[in-house]
Design goal:
CATH topology: Immunoglobulin-like
Structural class: mainly beta
Helix content: under 10%
Number of strands: 14
CATH architecture: Sandwich
Shape: globular
CATH class: Mainly Beta
Number of helices: 2
Radius of gyration: 16 Å
């Protein structure tokens, strides 16, 4: 099982476009999203992420290089997983449910909670809009591109309001990070922590890795 320590940064008034610079300055390590769990989907784009927090915001940066950069979904809480998409699932200690945060390459986000794949409830749009995002390819639909793209997210604590937590400091959790693209030219399903299941399914909490917030 993979383990992840999320470092605390004493930074405020951040902008999502600044995260990559801040993370480099802080020498935060990259973590690979490289587990190819299903051999019928052998394509393996280069995917990595960096993550930190500042007590009240979760700070997340993905960097991707792939052969098909595509984003058709142009609204939040849409079918972003069909596009060039990165995802972060997390369940805080004592919660029986987990959050899935999925974002395509132009910053359109889906956030939902529930106890399994079938029982999902999407977070209210006014809460989703509080997630600040920046993408190197902009925020308009894209197709027929390839190469590298980068996405940064600043996720405020109220997004996780069902967990009744007042700070990320010292929290324990479990989670996983993913890269997918169900309707890309070459569909693929990669994870940070390996998944042992007969077919692609990111909603399996048994295969979440350990997460500790500094």
């Amino acid at each position: 099982m993979s383990h992840l320590l999320i470092k605390k940064l004493n930074v405020t008034n951040l902008k999502a476009a600044e995260l990559s610079f801040i993370f480099a300055k802080e020498n935060l390590p990259f973590h690979a999203v490289s587990c190819m769990n299903w051999f019928e989907y052998p394509y393996k784009p280069d995917v990595k992420f960096r993550i930190a927090h500042n007590s009240h915001h979760l700070l997340l940066n993905f960097q991707v290089e792939e052969s098909d950069i595509k984003a058709v979904c142009d609204k939040d809480n849409g079918n972003v997983w069909e596009d060039s998409c990165v995802e972060f699932f997390i369940s805080f200690a004592k919660d029986v449910f987990y959050y899935n945060i999925e974002c395509n390459c132009i910053g359109k986000i889906l956030v939902a909670t529930g106890i399994d794949r079938q029982m999902r409830e999407r977070i209210a749009p006014d809460i989703v809009r509080t997630i600040e995002r920046w993408s190197s390819v902009g925020d308009s639909p894209v197709e027929n591109q390839s190469g590298a793209w980068e996405l940064s997210l600043i996720i405020p604590l109220p997004v996780f309001h069902l967990s009744r937590i007042s700070s990320f400091d010292g929290l324990r959790a479990k989670g996983n990070f993913y890269k997918c693209g169900d309707k890309l030219a070459v569909p693929h399903y990669l994870s940070w922590n390996p998944i042992k299941n007969g077919k692609p399914n990111f909603h399996l909490t048994a295969f979440f890795g350990e997460i500790l917030f500094e």
